[in-house]
């Protein structure tokens, strides 16, 4: 029997290919600005909400340092999930494609999160 989380990731991937995987919302704490590098350092709490056919199927929330400048790559820990992602643990790899605008998220669930409940 396939894991619910594994199925949810497949559905999210298919929705992404269709151009409507979901919405990213969050808030950040500004920590410092480096004038020489022209970079701001933040700590963010972000929730990814996934949709299938206009209906929410679940969400993942992750937190950590968020270096929002082009080509930055980092990982934040998953704090939890809801819906199809209830009980999820792991990390979200963030690739900044365009600062303050576009990001690529790669979700890496740990083994325990992939088990059926």
Automatic annotation (TrEMBL):
InterPro entries: Allene_oxi_cyc_Dirigent, Allene_oxi_cyc_sf. GO terms for molecular function: allene-oxide cyclase activity. SUPFAM superfamilies: Allene oxide cyclase-like. Residues 1-25 form the signal peptide. GO terms for biological process: jasmonic acid biosynthetic process. The keyword Signal applies. Keywords: Signal. This is CBM20 domain-containing protein. It comes from Gonium pectorale.
